[in-house]
Amino acid sequence: GSVGDGLYKLDFNKLTVQNYDLSEIISTLNLPPYVTHLTENEQGQIYISINRIGLFRFYPETGKSVRLLTSVLSKQASISALTHIKQTNKLLYALEGEDEVNICAYGPDGMLIGESKFVIDEYNRQENAIHALFEDSKGNIWIGANSGIYLKPKGGKSRLFSRNYSFVNSFTEDKHKNIWFGTAKEGVFYASQKIVNRRNIYFITSVPLKIDNFRSVNVQSVCSTPKGDTYIGTREGCLFRYNTNERKAIDISGLYGITEEG
């Protein structure tokens, strides 16, 4: 998603980029298509959030989008986090400034039906807004909030994972089962799980991002591929690729002509 230019699809095999300008949003709502989040379910259905407007179903075959309305999203709303949950086949989202996760089921034609919700921390509800949601391969749900990172085990309740990393914008999982997370103020990290004294312990590693000898700390998005590479997008508009063999993040923005904030 981009600021005002709609959606971009990056083909890792052909090294090409395709743009979907979402022109119907401009014509019907008279607003630029500021795409803040997107997710895809197991049926290949794509959902996007437009800043200050709400949730849409996107059709890549036509480039069109349809606005989705629910009991919570009946009016204009700004969505701060959005993801598909594979284990339960549900869509999760959070509204800007709120500490509750909304859960939706998929209805006919990919529309949303039914809703429930949960609070990420019943004992810390002040200034604990959600910024990111992610499901790992084990069915755990990772939640990035103002006050830190929360982890909701499959079938369990949400609990605090760490207060050391706040304002998390994005999560991903690489082929080694490391959980990556990008923050707005501290850069990008990955968490490696190891067994110590019969306990599962996470070890956190920071990955430096250098832009002309300056370090970038405002990470907007992270994405891992089946081959093992992890891609990192920054506020400055740079795209980095991290290779686990080299253990280094390299700025590859020039390969795709990316020059603006995305």
Comma- or semicolon-separated keywords:
262 residues; mainly beta; four-stranded antiparallel sheet; 2 helices; 51% strand
User: What is the string of helix and strand elements?
Assistant: EEHEEEEEEEEEEEEEEEEEEEEEEH
- Specify the overall morphology: globular
What share of the residues lie within helices? under 10%
Rg over C-alpha atoms, rounded to the nearest angstrom: 18 Å
- Total strand count, please? 24
> Helix- and strand-based class?
mainly beta
> Strand share of the residues?
over 45%
**Tally of contiguous helical segments:** 2
Can you give a write-up of this model?
The chain is mainly beta and 262 residues long. Helix content is 4%, strand content 51%. It has helices at 23-29, 253-256, and strands spanning 7-11, 16-20, 35-40, 46-50, 54-59, 64-68, 79-85, 90-95, 100-106, 112-119, 130-135, 141-145, 148-152, 159-162, 168-173, 179-183, 188-196, 199-207, 210-211, 214-215, 219-224, 230-234, 239-243, 248-251. The protein has a 4-stranded antiparallel β-sheet, covered by helices on one side. Strands 7-8-9-10 form a 4-stranded antiparallel β-sheet, with no helix packed on it. The model has no long low-confidence stretch (mean pLDDT 85).
